[in-house]
Structures
1.
Amino acid sequence: MRLLPLLLLLLLLFVIGVDAIDLQAPFDGLLRTTRFSSRGGRGTIGPIKKPWIDWSNRMSASLNPCDARPDDGGVVDVVVDAATEKNKDPLHWPARMWIALLIFSGVILLDGLDISMIAVAIPEIQHAFGIGAATAQWLVSAYILAFGGFLLLGGRCADLFGRRRVLVTGLAVFALVSVGGAFATDAGLLIVSRFVKGMAAGFTGPAAMSLLTTTFAEGPARNKAFGIFNLFEASGYSSGLLIGGLLAALNWRYIFVLPIPVAVLLLLAALRYLPPDAPRGKGQQRPRLDIGGAVTLVAGMLLMVFTVVSVEEAGWSSPRTVIGFAVAAALLVAFVVIERTVKEPLVRLGIFRNRGLVAANISAALLYGGAMGFQFLIALYLQNIQGWKPWQMALVLLPAGLMVVVIGPKIGALISRFGVTRVLMVGLLAFVPCYLLMLRIGPEPDLWGVLLPASVLWGLGFALSISALMVAGTNGVADDEQGLAAGLLNSSLQVGGACGLAVLTAAIGPGTELGMLYAGVWVILGFAVLTLVAQGVGLKRS
């Protein structure tokens, strides 16, 4: 039983590396097609005689017949989508695109839930296994460590070996490891299961996001899709606290049980409704993974995130911290050297010439560092100092979730009308008064004057800025590098969140007294200002 997570880790890397699975499912063959000749002209409409359909060709061809691929006879099978033919409005989507968007959004919702639910169950797990706080914090840190470490590799593997294949394999590993965590008999096995789940999420997250960006065309359609996508993401983080608190009140193991049916349903839906990855053409070389780049990148990212999350325990000036950062930097420098010389790099360094992508990544890291710090300060203030229950704290953050629910579906229309830059700047500006309000926290909690207004402003800023950053960071990126762009953005979020928490905890010390928390408020306020500066510099250079 102890070897299960390790075996699953090896299985995931093996499946992706060998690229040996074919997930094309048989369909009924009753769909009607229009046959286009590559030599021009349009033939008759009739039932498809093939036993299976190339759904990736159908998806692209139904949106743009010019993208369809001819068969051996020089004829292209194109499914005529009545909704598309009838209405060319980019915001009018056929049912299959809505289903696909719900699958992508469900994946990111699951990732958010799994990160936030565990936080409120840590005291129960400590009691069950008799472990201290230093060991218990790895229940959260192990997930973040693996998630942040594997995101870039996961995104590039999605580009190289097939986004649907990577998504489905990652969901299968996620579900199986959740079973192992639910029945874990010691804390060590539970922590290992959290690490492997974080690793699986490092593949599913960028795969889902790159599937979204390649399914929805750049512009109004993608803006609207990102609004819904990030609505699910934010809802996962915010609702996870409340759901985790309710489940932990029954039994902490239910927190590990809940993701199992969700992951299985998403897996089955992906197999049924997402188009299979396009097969390699005749004579097309098999994609090769840059092994040297992959090893140095993953090792460098893992060591950097590990060092960051260990700062609270070891201290910023300790030899372990200094050596950890130095070795991580050396590994990442080695990665850059390899990418400059290798024929097929894992990360094409030229992608960083996209100033919008660079500015979005820097802003994402700073924004998430402040956002995670805000949640942590609220938890310390209400639970440790005021003695509130986790579900009571979750209710204080409920207005933030409601703001995301209200604004999320409208974010695409807002970006289309006012532009991504204006929407992003308004969102980033909302964090400043939010964090300024936190300087007014006192011995008695001021619900109506401080906590709820801060929650509303935080939700407003999060709803506007996260979606706008995702749009800004993927605009102008080629389809074959959307997985890489998604991995970069998600890596920036996770590493920024981990670094923000490390700086915050160093500033507030034990955080057991009200006066200690004010230093933390100044830290997150500094993050908010730096985010505005970074985005402003990026816009000026653009």
Note: The CA atoms of residues 385 and 512 lie 7 Å apart.
2.
Amino acid sequence: MSRLGARMRASAAAAGERIPPWLSVTLGVVCTVVGAVLVLRPFASLALLVVAVVVGAVVLGVTELVGSRSPDRGDDPGAPRAPRWPHVARALVFLALAVAVVVWPAPSIVVVAVLVGVGLVVSGVLDGFEGVRSVGVDRWTRLALGVASVVLGVLALAWPDVTVLVVAVVFGVRVVVLGVRLVVAGVHRTRTQAGTARAVGPGSTSTAPDPSRPRRHGRVALVGAVLAVVAAGALAVVSVGLHRAAPQVDAFYDPPASVPGEPGRLLRAELFTREIPDGATAWRILYTTTRDEGEPAVASGIVVLPDALRDDAAPPVIAWAHGTTGSARGCAPSVLAEPFESGAFFLLDDVLAHGWALVATDYVGLGTDGPHPYLVGQGEARSVLDAVRAARELDGATLGEQTVVWGHSQGGHAALWTGAVAPEYAPDVPLAGVAALAPASDLTGLVSHLENVAGGSIFASFVVEAYDAIYPDSDAAGYVRPGARFVVREMASRCLSEPGALVSVAEALSMDQPLWTTDPTTGPLGERLAENVPTGPVAAPLLVAQGASDTLILPTAQEAYVGARCAAGQPVDYRTYQERDHVGLVQADSPLAPDLVRWTEARLAGEAPTPTCAAG
């Protein structure tokens, strides 16, 4: 876009010499208004983005055509006149860009981004050709601008959602600059013409042009072109770095050619050492499971055992259901650099110190082929239970029959569903207890509340991605504002712990319009969300914990959910923790940590629970 800025300045100067002053002022005012609105409200609407691109491209094309009629000798007045055809070709590129955006049926943001990227690449190539034909400083200026344009165009094509920000903000700024220059040029010419008219007559004098001015201007232009190359190169380096930092799965997660139809079978296992403390042995595992409607699937996970077992007995199992890490395949905790803390698990040392084994599913669709059942109860729960079954088949490891499920946030939702489906789906995995920590229990309330949460549209993107893939009848993407659909899709492709998530955060915070065009709690999507609210009875003792300062999972919503479960006859041990937010609730220094350990010890010891229901 720096290339566009330079071209706008040059074209505005040339056009200022050819078009009437009043037209220059009019075009300048239009550009200034459109550009300013786009900068101030970059995600206001797709229509506004389209209008800004069309107006900017038309003005650029027109000024290129007008400017091509003016002499262009660079910084050397004696140099031959530059050929017109590169100007004409650039004008045609910009005008074609404007026409393509207008005539494209229902243009999306990705269409706009791609067209702008193509325009930048083509214009950069023309600049390079023009530079080769030029001489002196002008040659290097045009070559540098051409390189910057091509680099920015390639980035636009490679990373379209970031291009939305570039187009909306940078393009908007450049259109404002062009508008101001056109206004100033028009006003200046009006005054100059008036002054010239007064000066014409007997005894009038003329001022000779300063011969050093073109040379100074050429040097300034070269400095600007070099800065444009540096800026484009920096963006390219950042882009490549962010893409390389995105977590990638390896061949371990590819299923073998022959996969058993029975769920809970171990397919593959290998030692796992990342972030595993001394005195413990861990494996990552690949196993069979099922999606909704009994569809076979493959999932992965981590198993950790203490090396020193108490009384040489098989250790009981803590089945951990992790919190949100993302919905893309590379977002599996076993793939991420922080396999436990990325999913908000901070109590591994406590688990091992008590002689318990940890079985932590990645869930189907994370690590393995998707879709990932984000906040889809059956898929999450089956991944948890089948991970425990598969872990029992590990060579050199023996697990006890007793299992307690822990889960936080998304994992709390999974834990509640695990408790509900276990008796029928996996009677061979008897549950001694279920602990749901800040669970996403009220899905309809949560999804409608996400717009009030800073960065909440990132979590909404995971919901849209999952429900669109798993429930085509819900048309989840159709509930999203058209101007935000592509951005939401790109947000869903990034993990929360990868550096590229900063782009998602910037996009989420930049949205100044509602994410939804239709209330997501109504219609087919609302029905699908409602059916994934965990209302099934949990036979095992149930603990629900909530941070009183949680702004994502609201305490009032959690209290209402627990109250409804109690009214339905479900015994619940409900505990709230003051001054604890969503993640702070499950950190190692939280008062919940010792309470959870003691509660788990009591369940494994067979002690009767003491439900409190909705009493905090």
Note: The radius of gyration is 31 Å.
3.
Amino acid sequence: MENFLSLKILDKFRGLFEKMGIDYKVMRIILKTKLVLDSRSALIIENQKKKESGEESISFIRRYLLHLIFGVLLAFFIYFIKDEMIRMIYFSGAFFFMTSMYLISDFSYVILDTKDKKILLPKPIDSKVITMSKVLHVLIYMFRLNLFLAGPSMLAIVRLNGFLAAPIFILEILLIDLLIFLITAFIYLLILRFFDGELLRNIINLIQIMLTVLVTVGYQIAMRMIDFTEIRNIAYRFEPHNYFNPILWFGAPFEILFNGGRESYLYVFTLLSVIVPVACFLLYLRLSKRMESLLLKLEGEGKERRSRHIIENLLGKLFIRNNIKRQAYHFSCAVLRSDRSLKLKIYPALSVGILLPVIMLFNMRMRMDYDTTGGYEYMYLYFVFMVFPSVLELIKYSSAWKGSYVYYTSGFQHTRELNSGILTSVTLRLFIPLLLVSSAIYIFVFKNLFINDIIVIMLASLVILPVIYRIIFDALPFSREIDGSNQSKDFGRYIASLTVTGVFALLHILLNKINIWIYAGILIAALPVSHMVIMPKYNFKGTK
């Protein structure tokens, strides 16, 4: 465990660190301690998963499988580009974006770690040593990520340009990693300078959600937006404002060495690709004391402004008259607003609900004029309902699941009102916006063609949701550990929910041929029955 390969490689550059005025021995001890703690944490997590699921420990390659898949797709893409600058621009852009997202989502806890401050700050240790150990700690993690994100692309570029391209490519990856880290750190520094740590936590959580959405469904849209026949012959054209775009800098050395480029801007790009990361790094070292002091803001919880929830409170008063239901509604809104781990699972599922009908529509009509409709395109909106079971399943879980003991100790038994308030919160906060966004896309595409059908689909969703809630829910809301949501779901319950959706979609088609407003009237009459009769009611264990 103590013989880390990264530390052995780092030892080769000991003289360089000492010339920078850094106590290498102390820095190495700090970095080694961090790596040991990380390795022990990973072993504990893997052993716990092994005990719970009976599976073997997750291998190093399996842990980074998604990164490897993306790296292979990126390598395949850039291999067929002829122009050296364009090839590296596409690679640098994709690599810069993906690495930045992963750095913020997965490695921010390393950049923003404050646990060691109480141990290191009282000691006679230079702040540069602490800062350098943190930078190297992050770069070691990023290097592991780069093996899978950039490794396949390096093989493709070596295949095109020869082995001389390998050391240049590796050096550029290190410079890009350093630049990404420094930009991220400066953004964090700027936020903490003017705001509290709560805003920074919210931004990081938002980036995590965006990354999960991108990995889940983004590639389906990206692959359809790329015209491979045109991109093979595209050539780079210089513009003066390109000097301020770091993504363009890293293609210049390849253009000079392997394509005979002699334009002056190529040499300026090459100098910028080296000077800017190094200069930013030296500035970061000078600001290290200021950075460490601002990080202490993260130890505060931040204050939540009640004014932010005006709409939420207004909707609660408008749609809920029962006091118990209203309390359950506000409780659910508070959890959905503050539970970062739960949001990280819910919002990617909701994004699938927005994109699935759009992708289905795009696939079916990709080569047709949208003005020529078959009359049943509105049925694709029922695909939005496919995410209802998945999202409602997640409402059982929370990162603060241990707090569910209050259900039992308080003697609370109004479970029907509790479930009604929870469902109202989920509907108003998640599902109605989801349907509105999807409907807006269809109105934009088809103008006013399916307005009546969209209104009926909105009514159908309000009737279907309590039915699906009754099928899916077999536990108290927010009462299960969030890690349990990764386990396999009850496939039978999911199929039953889809069957209910299919029945309503079939009724929509049949009654649409007669009069769509007959179906709308049936749905309006079914609304109180659905929400009052079907809503689940059960007793708590230990209560009478």
Note: The CA atoms of residues 328 and 421 lie 5 Å apart.
